[in-house]
Write the structure tokens for this entry.
Amino acid sequence: AIECFKGATAIVVPRTRFAPVKKCNDLLLLRSDAYACVNSVPVLAEGVSAAPSVSLDSKKYKLVQQLEANLIGGSAPSLKSCSSLTVKGDVRLSSKNVFVGNVTIKNESDEPKTLPPGRYENTTIDLTAAPGLGALKVSTLKTQPIDGQKPGTSGLRKKTAVFTEGKYLHNFVQATFDALKSTGADLECQTLLIGGDGRYYNDTAINIITKIALANGIRRVWVAKDGLASTPAVSALIREGGPQWKKVFGAFILTASHNPGGPSEDFGIKYNCENGGPAPEKLTNAIYKNTTTITSIKMCEGCPDIDPTVLGETVIEARDGSRRVSVEVVDGVAAHVDLLRTVFDLGAIKALLDRPDFSICFDAMHGVTGPYAKALFCDVLGQPQSCLINAVPKDDFGGHHADPNLTYAVDLTKKMGVDRLGQPVGSAQGVPSLGAASDGDGDRNMILGTQFFVTPSDSLAILAAHADCIPFFAAQGGIKAVARSMPTSGAVDRVAQAKNLALFETPTGWKFFGNLMDSKALFGGTDYTPFLCGEESFGTGSDHVREKDGLWAVLAWLQILAAHNAPGKPLVTVESIVKDHWATYGRNYYCRYDYEGVDKPKAQAMFAAMTSATEDNTGRVVQGNTIATADVFEYLDPVDGSISKNQGIRFLMEDGSRVIFRLSGTAGSGATGRMYI
């Protein structure tokens, strides 16, 4: 190429003046102690007169990833006294290997072999017959991209049969680890957490993920006992669990949330990051991109399956002693319950629950929350187990749809004396004072009083209005900000205006709330905590974790009731608190219609037609209602500057009312169209 330039001259630059990196041979040499960095320039280390010659196996060390995989702890061996190093085959090296003179290492076996620590001088070492990794041997499984692995607002959800076929789950998990590695995340020195809502295929998936995790360099895995960990509990374990050296860097949550479970129903998986919240869009986009190009999966196929029913640690050691990993079954309940103890005044709540004129009924809907509710209401607050219904987790949720709303929580609504529209039925005699339900993975909630239904939008507004009743907020000077998803009614807006609170309207998805909570801690921005947020889809929470939290919401209502019920005074009910709120702030009416399992292409075509007509619809009068603005909701995140487009079609009326249409990202199959009024 030089001859193409007139008058060009070649100049010989000796290796003493620069360090070229064309192959992994050069990279290993540069990373060794044969070189030092002086004023940001790599130069031969003191006492090294000439760079050693390095020849690595061209097939086993062709890519940087292959070199990284064969450097134990990421550190290169000592080469400062080495003249030449030749490696033939798959050999794992470390900083505890010191090479002097001319050294050759061979491995003609079909698995990596580890060179033991020590000094090797003018010698040839044959590792072919040496002990290998045994159960920790990494197999490289061939695969190919599978369509449809783009995570939605709450992870990846499909029919169980899709996840169990071929390498569908394997691909997504490997794509996630590859995405994490590309961000520079330290997977080796921290802990991966795995848990789920106990639905069908949970235990099998846990072992698949564990074996892929170990093959990708993770040394410590926590598995929730019985495979059960509610979504908010996972967030708590990430944020609060273990000493610093066992810090959890992230978690796989095996859940399809409120969707039905079982062999013919839905399964799901989502990844939560080190802040305890759902993976941000940047990471989920990277995961999805990887699923479209994936060709191989790393897996320790020889590792024994873990029994999640038995607490304790299983240590697995390589036969050659080069690697040691730990898989520990941990209590997924205690950390969350302990965190809730610090948020609420459980003594005051217990005094309320012990009143002869007060009773509670909690419906776990055969989801993951059953063990948590038993630990909290029975073991801590001393209530009889009869206050719980459907509290035993089942892999098909008892054949029911574990979604805490008036349509599906029929056992609770019957007990609380309301119909599927929330209207009172029958007699109020014997109906509990407070009824509550949570969904499959424990992050949603429904609140009922005696023959009285509290809408999620009203619940959020009332919690905001009475936030100072909750010690977690009061001790920090009260809440600073509230947020709601765009389809949620504006009830909380009225409270925010009256109390001069910062207010945010976000797309549906808890990750948007998480950004606001971590504005200062992770982004160096405004501190919005203490923070309260919620969605119309029966999700409420605060910055105590980075997920919505069903049990938290129930305790928040109990705390408010406890504050309004002085000993010896007549009982102040849920209904009276709600009606007092309406009298103070006004009432926002709200309803939602779900059209489930509709044809996805046709639903997308309908939404495309509405989108294209937004300009024409603006200013139209429909049955006496003027559409002030028709648009497609777009969110500019005030924390990280990201833009989320196509978050729902809005018809904003002149009188302040709204009609909203969204295609839900939480359906396991087909499409779910939602209309909000």
About this structure: The mean pLDDT is 94.
